[in-house]
Specification:
Helix content is 41%, strand content 21%. It is α/β, with parallel strands linked by helices. It folds into two domains: 7-126, 3-Layer(aba) Sandwich (Rossmann fold), CATH 3.40.50; 146-400, EAL domain (TIM Barrel), CATH 3.20.20. It is globular. It binds ligand C2E and calcium ion (CA) (2 copies).
Length: 405
């Protein structure tokens, strides 16, 4: 394979290790290798406007800034190139740092123990789809300011794509999750990771949630008119939930759209410590009294704790995809899943696994007793008008799926 266009940044405090990597990379056909002896220098290099690395190979044990801190910085700067972790530490440490990298949504290509054998490095780069497909990846994403996001919301540039949620036991489709997209006049399709945080910071999350909900209700109503009964899950942030009129507004809008409120599920991500726990409990309880579903999103990554789960009337728990994909091949991921599924069952929560990407993930989650699955193995997020056809095709073949598990 021709790797002539691929450029790699290697970070290691050991100059000998750097030389060795440069040689090994040359042997697998990568000549554009840049090296740094510390994490700070690497971050400075990545921050340069002309920086354009396809992959980063990083030693976890460095003086100054350790690998865990380095990952946090990479996530914050939205590094999108591939990442290879290297360490002389034992396998378990590499595995937990790998999980952390995935939880930060970094594009982890793999983890290697030192000394790195040439064949393992070659194998890892060979199986890295991003390096093969795109000769150049933009490591740093574009961001948008609040005024531009506000215009997008009010000019109707936002629309929803939908990703199905499927029952693992019988492959029945129970509903869809609305995922917002921005049809940007110059940049084309823009994904939520590029504007949700800025919408929150700019006080626009309420307007955004209204737009997503209005589009979602209109689509659900259309499917309903075609005889397709689907639940609608919508992502909301804590800031949405603490507006005291939120439950009543939701009910009014659902009624106006002709959709039963018990079709609605709100997926809440715990991003920060709860600012006003009493208001939150008040609102969450009223939502549940109105039979609106409440789901705790990204469980296992952030600040969500068992105590908060018990205190708030959630009825669904979504296991973050960083613990799901690859669980069949990773005993420690399975242990985490098992613990969380057991706990959810005791609390009477419905469980949803995100990031079910392949058959192994599907079989594994099914065997572990998870209720619902969502992910590329079932379907990628799709525009509203593709949902009915997808649903028919899925139903036509769904009976084959669960059996072999
Ligand atoms: P999320 O709620 O965890 O949504 C799931 C994300 O995982 C989606 O990314 C989806 O496209 C992606 N995904 C689905 N299946 C798979 C899979 O099998 N493998 C992998 N690797 N990924 C998969 P997307 O659409 O880019 O959304 C990113 C995040 O943006 C969402 O994460 C959610 O937190 C936020 N978001 C999306 N729509 C809204 C919204 O309307 N309001 C708010 N407040 N946040 C939103
Ligand atoms: Ca979600
Ligand atoms: Ca998630």
């Amino acid at each position: 394979m021709n790797r002539g266009n691929v450029s790699v940044l290697v970070v290691d405090d050991d100059p000998f290790a750097l030389k060795l990597f440069a040689r090994q990379l040359a042997l697998v056909g990568i000549d554009a290798v840049h090296t740094c002896t510390g994490a700070e220098a690497a971050l400075a290099e990545l921050g340069r406007p002309e920086a354009d690395f396809d992959a980063l190979i990083c030693d976890l044990n460095m003086p100054g800034m350790d690998g865990v801190q380095f990952l946090r910085h990479l996530a914050r700067m939205r590094y999108r190139g591939g990442l290879v972790l290297v360490s002389g530490e034992d396998e378990r440490i590499l595995q937990s740092v790998s999980r952390l990298a995935r939880a930060h949504k970094l594009n982890l290509l793999g983890a290697l123990r030192k000394p790195v054998a040439l064949e393992r490095l070659r194998h890892l780069l060979d199986s890295a789809p991003t390096i093969q497909r795109h000769s150049v990846l933009r490591p740093v994403r574009k961001t948008y300011d609040a005024a531009e996001i506000e215009r997008a919301i009010f000019d109707g540039q936002l629309f929803n794509q939908y990703q199905p949620k499927v029952n693992l036991a019988d492959a029945e489709v129970t509903g869809v999750e609305a995922l917002v997209r921005w049809r940007h006049p110059e940049d084309g399709l823009v994904y939520p990771d590029q504007f949700i945080a800025d919408a929150e910071a700019g006080g626009l999350i309420d307007a955004l949630a209204r737009a997503v909900l209005a589009n979602g209700l209109a689509d659900v109503r259309r499917w309903q008119d075609e005889g397709l009964a689907l639940q609608l899950s919508v992502n909301v942030s804590m800031d949405n939930l603490v507006a005291l009129d939120f439950p009543d507004r939701l009910v009014r809008e659902a009624e106006a759209a002709g959709v039963a409120v018990d079709r609605l599920v709100l997926e809440v991500t715990e991003s920060q410590a709860m600012r006003d726990p009493t208001a939150l409990l008040d609102i969450a309880t009223r939502l549940r009294l109105k039979r609106i579903g409440l789901s705790i999103d990204d469980f296992g990554t952030g600040y969500s704790s068992l105590a908060q789960l018990r205190e708030l009337p959630f009825d669904e728990l979504k296991l973050d995809r960083s613990f799901v994909h690859g669980a069949a091949q990773d005993a420690s991921l399975r242990a985490i899943l098992e613990a969380n599924l057991g706990m959810a069952k005791q609390l009477g929560l419905r469980t949803v696994a995100e990031g079910v990407e392949d058959r192994d993930d599907w079989d594994c989650l099914r065997a572990l007793g998870c209720d619902l699955a969502q992910g590329w193995f079932v379907a990628r997020p799709m525009p509203a008008n593709e949902v009915p056809n997808w649903l028919r095709a899925w139903r036509a073949r769904h009976r084959e799926l669960p059996r072999s598990a």
